[in-house]
Amino acid sequence: MLKKLDWLFWLLTIIVFSRLFTMAYMPMIDTTEARYGEIARIMAETGDWITPWFDYNVPFWGKPPLSFWLEASSFKLFGVTEFSARLPSWLINLGILSLIYTLSRHFSDHRQALISLLIYSTMGLSFVMSGAVLTDPFLTFATTLSFVSFILSIKSPNSLWRWWFFIGLSIGLLAKGPLVLVLVGGPIFLWLLWRNKWHELRKIPWGYGLFLTAIISLPWYIAAEFKTPGFINYFIVGEHFLRFVDSGWKGDLYGTAHKELYGTIWLHWIWASLPWGLITIGMLIVRWGFSIKPHNFLKEKITDEQALLLLAALFPSLFFTFSGNVLWTYQLPALPPLAILISTLIANANPINKVKRSAFVITTVTIPIVLMLIGLYTHFSPNKLKTEKSLVSYYDKHKNYDTPPLIYIEKAPFSARFYSKGQVVQMTLAELKNMINNRSDTKYFIAVANKSISKVIATLPDNVVITFKNRRYTLLKVNLAN
Fold first, then answer.
1. Across-strand partners of 259?
2. Plot region of 64 (φ>0 → left; ψ -120 to 50 → alpha; else → beta)
3. Which of 40, 257, 263, 385 is geometrically suited to a Cys-Cys bond with 71, CB 3.0 to 4.6 A?
4. What are the beta bridge partners of residue 469?
């Protein structure tokens, strides 16, 4: 039987490992990925494993440290590179795939489990996130672990899965924060109401389990508050309440709010699940759109486990419907249960013939191929992206042993800080002029926003040369030695 399934296994293997190439040759892009990479780099450099730092003297209270711990450890082992920064997300994606396979195998057979893995691995958002420096893959591993553990605990109350449910919550608290309690608890609560399964709660050791969760996660929260007082208030009240209810929240210390129209999260569900979300909608319309008893569909057609997976797949959209402060990455926890449900639809359809197999293969490889081609294009055309990799590289090649650090007027992008290993200097134009006026024996490299280049050149000495230009910045050389 395995020989018949080799094509599914090898297709999955090629797709999953193909992401390693884009991880290595794509530059770090501002703002989010480069920011998180720089925070992890500072952690590895300073050895401070309690407080993530936004800058050397600015604590980062926006996220817990789990992803930074793993990325900083990767830097320690393999050096500070794009690949090292992204490797933990790729590895945690393997963990997500193992959980999807475990639950799919519980429902059906090896074939359907592989189909579930292929569907998840080739959704737009999950493919991107499997090699990106973000916290969402770690949250998704946590929510998936808790859902898988909850379902398997109900089936086998005395198994170790009942404890892994709480370990999943602990991982989520250290990866993203209390949001994990909402994303896991919300679907379970709705499922209990819908299916009237309140008696199933007796199979979960809530007292000891929550104590285990607290033992694992709370020590870091306490240590972080003691080290930088104010963290708890900002993170719990600001990040988890004010950010949700106020789409224009002004209290964000590290960026700007992502203001969107209410309900935008449903559009993000479409983008995140491409191409499978749209395919599923079409399959449902064809299969059940003309059902004789559509009002009995949810009651008769869906098992208890599938009902919980359906709620888990839809809950992020439901929860963020009335929040305008949303990103498409918020949909990542919805994709593992969605992939399992879609594989069920495919498995219940007619047997896969050669035509359907070809269509399935084409569908699975579309997103990976498109994104890999985009990644390859960006590798050879980095100046079209929001990244300072090429500019910093140019500076490194042309500086002397006594050349001062690269100067950015006003604010240095995170990618510049990452690629320079924190050696860039931020200055106002007035500070730069004052420094130049007091020196006459060296040369400076100055990065200036393209929109301000004329103004800056007009205020500097005559011996200014434009040496490099990318999408956002122009690199100037001021040679005072001449």
1. 325
2. beta
3. 40
4. 474
Q: Whole-angstrom Cα distance, residue 38 to residue 32? A: 10
Find, among 58, 86, 92, 65, the residue nearest to 74 by Cα.
86
| Cα distance between residue 453 and residue 180, in whole Å | 46
- Which phi and psi angles does 412 have, rounded to 5°? -90, 130
Place of tokens 């002029």: 433
In degrees, rounded to 5, the angle at the alpha carbon of residue 334 between the alpha carbons of residues 333 and 338 is: 135
Radius of gyration of the chain (CA): 25
Q: What residues pair up with 468 in beta bridges, in sequence order? A: 475
**3-state percent breakdown (helix, strand, coil) of the chain, nearest 5:** 65, 5, 25
Nearest residue to 442 (alpha-carbon basis) of 396, 406, 482, 389: 482
Confidence of residue 2 (pLDDT cuts 50, 70, 90): very low
C-alpha 421/C-alpha 162 separation (Å) is 44
Q: Give the alpha-carbon dihedral of 131, 133, 139, 144, to 10 degrees.
A: 0
Cα–Cα distance between 424 and 427 in angstroms, integer? 10
- Among 437, 468, 438, which Cα is nearest to 453's? 468
Mean pLDDT over the full length of the chain = 89
The residue type of 319 is: F
Give the pLDDT band of residue 1 (cuts 50, 70, 90). very low
**Residue indicated by tokens 């920011």:** 35
- The token pair at 37 is 């990479």
pLDDT in tens, 294-350: 555 545 568 999 999 999 999 999 999 988 788 999 999 999 999 999 998 887 765
26 and 378 Cβ atoms separated by less than 8 Å: yes
Give which of 442, 428, 453 is closest to 479, Cα–Cα. 442
Comparing CA positions, the residue from 154, 44, 168, 166 lying closest to residue 96 is 168
| Distance separating alpha carbons of residues 310 and 369, to the nearest angstrom | 29
Peptide bond into 275 cis (omega under 30): yes
Cα distances from 474 to residues 22, 421, 436, in angstroms, run 27, 20, 19
H or E element that contains 31: none
What is the distance between the alpha carbons of residues 378 and 444, in angstroms, rounded to a whole number?
29
Q: What are the backbone angles phi and psi of residue 414, rounded to the nearest 5°?
A: -65, -35
